[in-house]
Specification:
Blueprint (H helix, E strand, L loop, with lengths): L2 E2 H4 L7 H22 L9 H23 L2 H36 L12 H8 L18 H6 L11 H16 L9 H21 L11 E5 L3 E4 H19 L5 E2 L1 H17 L4 H17 L14 H18 L6 H28 L32 E2 L1 E2 L4
Antiparallel strand pairs: 1-4, 2-3, 5-6
Pfam families: Acyl_transf_3
InterPro entries: Acyl_transf_3_dom, Acyltransferase_3
GO molecular function, one term: acyltransferase activity
C-alpha cells in the first residue's frame, strides 16, 4: 500500500537530519582514504560524490519548500544566514589559525604568509562568498601529505568547492519563485526540465559512457559573480539531483511512497553503484531511496538534527582537520583509526560552529529592516502550496537550509 509523500512527510517528523549526518560522515570516510593514504576509498564508486549527490537531493526538497513558504527576499536572507556565517568563521579559522601554525612549522616564521600572492589575505578575499577560487595558502602542505603525493594538490579545504554549486541552485530557485513557477499551476515546468535533463543524461551515457563528455557537460560556466568558475559536468549532475528533490516537493501530493518501490529503487541503485555505471535512471532511483528513507526510517532517528544540525560544520571543517592530521602522521593508526579520529575532531568543530555561529545567526532569520517593518505581513503560501517544517540545510554542501 502506498501513500503520497505529502501524507507521510509531516513537518520535522522525518529522518532528513540523520541522512545529512550520515552523508557528512561518508564524505569524511571517503576523504580519509584520499587525504590520509593517497588513494580512493573504493575503486569503482566515489563515496564522497554519492554522499554529496544525496545532500543536493535533500537540499532541493527542503529549499523549494522554503521558497514556497516565504517571499523571495526573505528566502534569500534565510539562505545567506545558513551558509555564510559558518563559512566565514571556517575561512578565518583556516587562514588565521591553521595557516600560521603550518607556516611556522615549515619555515619557522610567518613572514610572507599574509599579503604575498596566494597568501592568507588572497585566500580570504577570493573564497569569501562561496566560490573556491584559491585552493591552497602559500606553499603549505606541498610535498608534506599523502594527498600531495597522490594528486599534487596544495588544497587546504577541498570540501568548500561544492558550496558554489549549492549557492547557484539557491539563486535559481529564487528566480523560479519570483516568476511564480513554483506555484501549483506552473509546477509542470520544473518537472519538464527534470525529464529533459534525464533524457540528456541518458543520451550522453549512450554516446560517451561515464567519461563526463556530452551535451551540457563539457567545459565551464564563467565567470559568475561571487561563485567564480563552475564545471558544467558537476553543475549538470548536482543540479539534476537538486532538481529531482525540488520536483519531489512540488509533486509531493502525487509522488507515491511505497515500501516495495523503495526496496526496488534501493536494489537498482545498489546494482548501479557496484557496477560504477552512474547515469540518469540510477540517480532517479537514488533520489527516491533518500525520500523513502526520510519517511520510513525508525522514529528514533527523527531526533537527529532536529535541534542541533552538525552536518554542515562537519562538512566544512573535516577536510582541514584531515589535512593537518595527515601532515603530522595520524594515518599511522590505519584507515579506520584515521577516520574515527578525524571524525571525532570534526564533530567537535561542528558542535562549536553550530552553537557559537550557525544557530545564533539563524536567530536573525525573522529580522526585518526598520524601513520595512510597517509593511503588511508577507503573503501566506498559495492554496495547495502549504508546507510544514523546514530543516536546516546540510551544506553542500553541503550541504542542505533553515527556513
Amino acid at each position: 500500500m502506498s501513500q503520497p509523500l505529502a501524507s507521510t512527510y509531516l513537518g520535522r517528523a522525518n529522518s532528513f537530519g540523520a541522512l545529512r549526518l550520515a552523508f557528512a560522515l561518508a564524505v569524511v570516510l571517503s576523504h580519509s582514504a584520499a587525504l590520509g593514504f593517497g588513494r580512493p576509498l573504493m575503486p569503482r564508486v566515489d563515496v564522497g560524490d554519492v554522499a554529496v549527490a544525496g545532500f543536493f537531493t535533500i537540499s532541493g526538497f527542503l529549499i523549494v519548500r522554503s521558497a514556497r513558504r516565504s517571499s523571495v527576499p526573505r528566502f534569500l536572507w534565510h539562505r545567506a544566514l545558513r551558509i555564510w556565517p559558518g563559512l566565514w568563521v571556517c575561512l578565518l579559522f583556516t587562514g588565521l589559525v591553521v595557516a600560521p601554525l603550518l607556516h611556522l612549522d615549515r619555515h619557522g616564521t610567518v613572514d610572507g604568509l599574509w599579503r604575498s600572492p596566494g597568501g592568507v589575505f588572497d585566500y580570504l578575499r577570493l573564497n569569501w562568498w562561496g566560490g573556491l577560487r584559491q585552493l591552497g595558502i602559500a606553499d603549505l602542505l606541498q610535498g608534506d601529505t599523502p594527498y600531495w603525493r597522490w594528486q599534487g594538490g596544495n588544497t587546504i579545504n577541498g570540501s568548500l568547492w561544492t558550496l558554489a554549486y549549492e549557492l547557484f541552485c539557491y539563486l535559481l530557485v529564487a528566480v523560479l519563485a519570483a516568476l511564480a513557477i513554483l506555484r501549483r499551476q506552473l509546477r509542470w515546468l520544473p518537472l519538464l526540465a527534470a525529464v529533459a535533463v534525464l533524457g540528456v543524461a541518458c543520451w550522453n551515457y549512450l554516446l560517451h559512457g561515464n567519461d563526463g563528455q556530452g551535451v551540457w557537460t563539457t567545459g565551464t560556466v564563467e565567470p559568475l559573480p561571487l561563485l567564480g568558475v563552475l564545471e558544467k559536468n558537476d553543475l549538470f549532475w548536482f543540479g539534476f539531483m537538486f532538481l529531482l528533490g525540488g520536483v519531489a516537493e512540488l509533486y509531493s501530493d502525487r509522488l507515491p511512497i511505497s515500501d516495495p518501490l523503495g526496496v526496488l529503487a534501493l536494489v537498482v541503485f545498489g546494482w548501479i553503484a557496484v557496477s560504477g555505471n552512474f547515469f540518469g535512471p540510477g540517480l532517479v532511483a537514488y533520489a527516491y531511496v533518500i525520500l523513502w528513507l526520510a519517511v520510513r526510517l525508525p522514529k528514533a532517528l527523527h531526533r537527529i538534527g532536529r535541534q542541533h544540525d552538525y552536518s554542515y560544520g562537519i562538512y566544512i571543517y573535516s577536510f582541514v582537520v584531515q589535512q593537518v592530521m595527515a601532515k603530522v602522521g595520524v594515518q599511522a593508526v590505519g584507515l579506520i583509526g584515521f577516520f574515527l579520529a578525524s571524525a571525532l575532531v570534526s564533530v567537535g568543530f561542528a558542535m562549536l560552529s553550530w552553537h557559537l555561529v550557525e544557530r545564533p545567526a539563524l536567530r536573525l532569520k525573522d529580522w526585518t529592516p526598520a524601513a520595512l517593518r510597517d509593511r503588511p505581513d508577507e503573503p501566506a503560501p498559495p492554496e495547495g502550496d502549504g508546507a510544514a517544517g523546514d530543516a536546516p540545510h546540510p551544506g553542500v554542501t553541503a550541504a542542505p537550509a533553515s527556513g
